UniProtKB/TrEMBL annotation:
Residues 285-298 have a biased composition (Pro residues). SUPFAM superfamilies: Protein kinase-like (PK-like). It comes from the Bacteria. InterPro entries: Kinase-like_dom_sf, Prot_kinase_dom. This is Protein kinase domain-containing protein. Residues 13-274 form the Protein kinase domain. Transmembrane segments: none annotated. Residues 279-316 are annotated as: Disordered. GO terms for molecular function: ATP binding; protein kinase activity. Signal peptide: none annotated.
Length: 497
């Protein structure tokens, strides 16, 4: 018997509180049930591409599973639970809220922040991890990969492919044994059903190695291989397993095979990961050094009071003020004499008038009136008429677009490097557009949103960017920078997912 699909009107959800957003839609918490499910509503431009029957099949699927498989699936994935309508039109779905264990406390620029624990944080060098306060050792990496491979094996057994497997939709926990959790389940493929057309994240594209079907177990294994080699290397772009433990390298090379038939199944990865884990031992903590006794302070030498030399008194009959007065008077007289001797330039300014008496000396200084030269006042003639010329519209050349507004997506964190990256990305909409042919097909662009930022503080930072074209469509690409945040690469564009 076919299970009934649960459908709800958005008004029945009560007040909504926005908690996240992306290229496809917005995610809301239900204010009246903060610990319950969350609601994802698709943007209007995405609704036309929505396969409503596929969404209903996703919701129905968990009701058709046995209890053990249902529990295992819902433990690993934020799976759709109910279809939601707005004004009679299917606009989204309810799904499980991300469990608290998949959040992480990080520090950005000295400011603590609680973040969704996306795997993108793990794909960074040790210096960055230490800077943000994230402890990632080799044992953690292998255990996280082992749990991810186990989750993929479960999904593939249930005829589910992740499809767009990337560090943006895969979460990690920091438990004693790290666990994984998948979000964006509506981008998965259930049998032949896809809620939205299959897409790929730039730099995580199986299409870069060959023309093969998207959203299959083989494409998932390829992207698992990318995740593993980049996790061990601590960077975002490599496909070389050289940094991985020796026992894993052969398996990872097979995962990255260009022929899908040559890749192992996800279940086949359990053994090499377990053998690698057995070779890793927790480092033995070094014993704390014995405390060094504090040195006994030496006694301070006895201080001898300094003798003060008495200042002889001023002789009677002489005062300091009188001496200053005579000195001032002498200087004034010298100034007057010198001024009279050398003042032989300029016209006569008339007879002297009453002066100013200096009290200390009794002398009177002469007062000179301001000289008048008898020159006429200046005149000014404006040779230009007070009429502005008419502007000819045809002569006005439109200015080229200088840049576009670049926003930072929810959950994206960074320091000064993120600001520099945003400036460089904004210029891709303007003068730098012609330097990157990959952008020309869908140009011009009205705006950009950084939905992923990686490698700050390294020599090759990068960003995942959603570009909004003037026709309203959204295109995702990856932008690579050098250490000075000059754009060095722009990846191919794909629809925002």
């Amino acid at each position: 018997m076919t299970a009934q699909v649960r459908e709800i009107d958005v008004a029945a959800l009560g007040p909504l509180v926005r908690i996240a957003g992306g290229g496809q839609g917005l995610v809301y918490r239900l204010r009246d049930t903060p610990d319950g499910p969350v609601y994802k509503e698709y943007l209007p431009r995405v609704v036309d591409d929505l396969d409503v029957d596929a969404l209903r099949a996703f919701v129905r699927y968990t009701e058709e599973l046995d209890a053990a498989d249902r529990e295992a699936l819902l433990e690993r994935v934020a799976w759709p639970e109910a279809v939601v309508r707005r004004d009679g039109v299917v606009r989204g779905f309810l799904m499980r809220q991300v469990p608290p264990r998949f959040r992480v406390d990080l520090t950005f620029g000295g400011t603590p922040s609680s973040e969704l624990a996306t795997a993108q944080f793990l794909l960074n060098p040790p210096g960055y991890l230490e800077k943000v306060g994230l402890a990632v050792g080799q044992r953690f990496r292998v255990e996280f990969l082992a749990d991810t491979a186990e989750a993929l094996a479960l999904l593939h057994r249930l005829d589910i492919a992740v499809g767009d497997l990337s560090p943006n939709n895969l979460l990690f926990s920091q438990d004693a044994r790290p666990r994984c959790f998948f979000v964006d389940s509506d981008s998965m493929r259930l049998g032949e059903h896809s809620v939205l057309p299959q897409g790929e994240t730039p730099d995580w594209r199986v299409g870069d190695v060959g023309d093969e079907e998207l959203g299959t177990s083989a494409s998932d294994v390829y992207k698992f291989g990318l995740l593993a080699v980049r996790l061990f290397a601590g960077e975002q772009h490599t496909t070389d397993p050289a940094a991985a433990p020796v026992r894993l390298r052969r398996s990872l090379r097979l995962c990255l095979a260009t022929d899908p038939a040559g890749r192992p199944g996800a279940a086949d990865l359990a053994d090499p990961l377990a053998r690698t884990l057995n070779t890793l031992r927790e480092p033995t903590p070094e014993p704390a050094p014995e405390p060094t006794p504090e040195p006994t302070p030496e006694p301070e030498p006895e201080r001898v009071p300094r003798q003060r030399t008495p200042i002889p008194p001023v002789p009677a009959g002489r005062s300091l003020g009188g001496s200053v007065g005579w000195v001032v008077g002498a200087l004034v007289l010298i100034g007057v004499v010198v001024g009279n001797v050398f003042d032989d330039s300029g016209p006569s300014s008339g007879p002297l008038t009453g002066g100013i008496t200096v009290p200390a000396t009794g002398f009177t200084l002469p007062d000179y009136p301001y000289p008048t030269y008898g020159l006429p006042d200046p005149t000014y003639y404006n040779p230009y008429p007070d009429v502005l010329p008419d502007l000819v519209p045809s002569a006005m050349v439109p200015l080229p677009r200088l840049s576009c507004l670049t926003e930072t997506g929810a959950g994206v964190q960074g320091g000064e490097g993120l600001g520099s990256a945003r400036v460089a990305i904004g210029q891709l909409c303007g003068p730098a557009l012609g330097d990157w042919p990959a952008l020309a097909e869908h140009a011009p662009y009205d705006g950009a949103r950084v939905v992923g930022f990686f490698g700050e503080g390294t020599g090759a930072p990068s960003a995942t960017v959603d570009l909004t074209a003037e026709d309203g469509r959204c295109w995702r690409t990856s932008v690579g920078f050098d250490a000075g945040y000059r754009v060095r690469s722009v990846g191919p564009l794909s629809p925002c997912g």
